[in-house]
Design goal:
By secondary structure, the chain is of the alpha+beta class. It has 14 helices and eleven strands. It folds into four domains: 174 residues, no CATH class; 89 residues, PAS domain (Beta-Lactamase); 73 residues, Helix Hairpins (Orthogonal Bundle); 145 residues, Histidine kinase-like ATPase, C-terminal domain (Heat Shock Protein 90, 2-Layer Sandwich). Its EC number is 2.7.13.3.
Length: 530
């Protein structure tokens, strides 16, 4: 077998073929120079001078044509024919030059060795056999006309043996080189595949990875880093204008690597990131490897575990409190109904009644954290459902509380637990009405239902014309037990967001232009299963 020299990647085979062409052309030129200066008669015991000189010219001209035409042989037969012709011509020159004393037999051995680099196995040994037979037969033929040539049998046999030895040796070396080359190619392919796999893993990691040089230029940034930082392509750019907080943490780490860097928030509504830094020494260059981990989910899970533990703890306490609390509330109610109770005492009884209700509300909210049931989403027509909700709310609301409904587009459907949606919307509407009434005689809330153009998802906005949320408090309003009122528990918005997330919806706060607040519920697609 032989390698396909015409293959695009087999440059080594083509180099060997060019070496073979150069070797034959060099022999042809040397023979022409020798016969042009009549050195052939002086150096060689030529038997047939005309045959030798004509054969030398034909050998050179033929090799020139072969070197020009045969650059990329496509078949084994072409290489075999080339080697066979070369052996035949050298054998003819061997005969014309007088046999083994001419030294052309040595050239024949070299030609067989080079041919066996390109022709392996039985084909290469066949060329060696042809050369050995030609040497022995031509020596025998010379001995018939020149008895002195009978002494050349040993040399001719040795040259024939060298043809076989050279063929076998070259084939063994070539086979080993081919195995090494194949192994190297396989290792190179494995390394390339590993590099590609590592690149894919690096790009798909949720952890953001950056490599910075001493000028804070981004040498590498995976997809996770660009998403967490909320930026586009960062490779090749200076990180300072894109994330000054990250650069500040980097400077702190360079000043004292033993301290844990503070967390940061690269985007206003983005996740909380925990950076970590590692020095990289690449030759004479000092680089910094930056890891960005999103700790928002970890903090949220820790908070949920904390609240679950708190819920289980307070559930037992709440049951023990509700019994005496109910007795206090009932006693206060009986006092209020007494005819002998004067006005100031009536006021005190009312205070007891109000604070009992407030304590009962706190207990109910805390209990709700520990016994919240699993969501049971149903396919809802949001337009129909909202009209019914607004109608029921208006029927029970005071006259100084108004709710307005506006819907856009065609049918808007989603999958959500209707009871939990009622709880969320009731809480948001009551909050909006309460804050609106603080600045106006009539508290108003607007419900606006539409389809988002970018995500194609149903969106419900709950808007009010109250004072709004101060910017410094916006990031805390969904935290449990965080409240801006003395009478609030700080659990309403937290529970509302948790209920939305349990139904694969999202609850966000957006400041309303011109004042007021806007809570936006982005519902899940109706075909999205819970």
């Amino acid at each position: 077998m032989t390698a396909d020299i015409s293959a695009p990647g087999n440059t080594q085979g083509r180099r060997i073929l060019r070496l073979y062409h150069f070797y034959r052309l060099s022999i042809g030129l040397a023979l022409i120079l020798m016969i042009s200066s009549n050195l052939d008669e002086q150096l060689l015991d030529v038997v047939h001078i005309e045959l030798f000189r004509t054969g030398s010219w034909v050998y050179l001209i033929l090799n020139i044509f072969i070197a020009v035409l045969v650059q990329k042989p496509k078949h084994l037969m072409q290489l075999f024919s080339l080697a066979l012709v070369d052996v035949i011509f050298l054998s003819a020159l061997f005969y014309a030059a007088g046999g083994t004393p001419s030294g052309i037999g040595n050239l024949l051995v070299v030609a067989v060795a080079i041919a066996n680099i390109l022709l392996r196995g039985r084909v290469g040994l066949l060329i060696a056999a042809v050369a050995a037979m030609a040497l022995i037969y031509l020596t025998f033929y010379l001995s018939l006309s020149r008895p002195a040539a009978a002494a050349q049998y040993v040399q001719a046999g040795a040259l024939g043996a060298l043809c076989f030895a050279g063929a076998l040796f070259i084939q063994g070396i070539t086979r080993r080189l081919q195995v090494s080359e194949n192994l190297a190619e396989q290792r190179a392919a494995d390394v390339a595949n590993l590099e590609e796999l590592n690149a894919q893993i690096l790009q798909r990691m949720r952890t953001g990875i950056l490599v910075l040089d001493t000028q804070h230029r981004v040498l590498l940034a995976n997809q996770g880093a660009t998403q967490l930082l909320g930026r586009g392509e960062l490779t090749g750019k200076i990180i300072d204008p894109h994330s000054p907080e990250l650069v500040k943490r980097l400077q702190q780490w360079l000043h004292n690597p033993t301290l844990r860097p503070d967390s940061l928030q690269a985007q206003v509504d983005g996740p909380v990131l925990q950076p970590s830094f590692i020095s990289l020494q690449r030759g004479d260059q000092q680089h910094t490897l930056v890891f960005l981990d999103d700790i928002s989910q970890i903090a949220q899970q820790a908070q949920q575990l904390k609240l679950a533990s708190l819920g289980r703890l307070t559930a037992g306490i709440a049951h023990e409190i509700r019994n005496p609390l109910g007795a206090i509330s009932h006693a206060a109610q009986l006092l209020q109904e007494s005819e002998d109770l004067h006005g100031p005492d009536q006021r005190l009884a009312q205070i007891i009644q109000d604070h009992s209700k407030r304590m009962n509300l706190v207990i109910e909210n805390v209990l709700q954290l520990s016994r919240r049931r699993q969501a049971e989403p149903q396919l809802l027509d949001l337009k129909y459902w909202l009209h019914r909700f607004a109608s029921e709310f208006r029927s029970s609301a005071p006259t100084d509380r108004q709710i307005h409904l506006e819907t856009q587009g065609g049918s808007l459907q989603t999958r959500m637990d209707p009871h939990q949606l009622t709880q969320v919307l009731t809480n948001l509407v009551q909050n909006g009405l309460r804050y609106s009434a603080k600045q106006h005689k009539i508290g108003q809330v607007w419900l606006r239902l539409f389809r988002d153009e970018n995500s194609d998802l149903p969106v419900l906005e709950i808007l009010d014309d109250g004072p709004g949320v101060p910017p410094e408090q916006e990031q805390h309003i969904f935290e449990p037990f965080y409240t801006t009122e003395n009478k609030g528990t700080g659990l309403g918005l937290y529970i509302s967001r948790e209920l939305c997330q349990g139904n694969q919806a999202r609850l966000d706060y957006k400041p309303r232009e011109g004042g007021g607040s806007c809570f936006r519920i982005t519902f899940a697609h109706p075909r999205k299963l819970s």
